[in-house]
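Exercise 7b. Backbone tokens:
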């Protein structure tokens, strides 16, 4: 179909056009690839975050209480994000 002018782009127009071209299945056509990428990242991130918090708290117990616990969370989150990204990069490359 014809592309509407820029001022007429609306979410409802886009959904109606997708539905007309392939039904609601088109809206979820990339769900498998998305799950293939996101599930390993999320699982890895949670597991590594928990392990990193435990390791940091064991090595540096003075950081585990009060406001310094934010630094433990920050460091553990950074570590978990890097490891999760490394695990999910192959799937991310395939998806994009």
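Sequence design result:
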């Amino acid at each position: 179909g014809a592309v509407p002018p820029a001022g007429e782009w609306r979410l409802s127009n886009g959904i109606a056009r997708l539905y007309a071209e392939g039904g609601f299945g088109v809206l979820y056509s990339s769900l498998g690839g998305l799950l293939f990428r996101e599930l390993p990242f999320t699982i890895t991130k949670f597991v590594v975050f928990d392990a990193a918090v435990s390791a940091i708290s064991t090595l540096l117990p003075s950081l585990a209480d009060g406001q310094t616990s934010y630094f433990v969370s920050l460091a553990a989150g950074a570590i978990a994000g890097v490891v999760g990204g490394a695990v999910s990069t192959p799937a991310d490359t395939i998806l994009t």
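Instructor comment: The chain has a mean pLDDT of 85. The first helix runs from residue 11 to 22.
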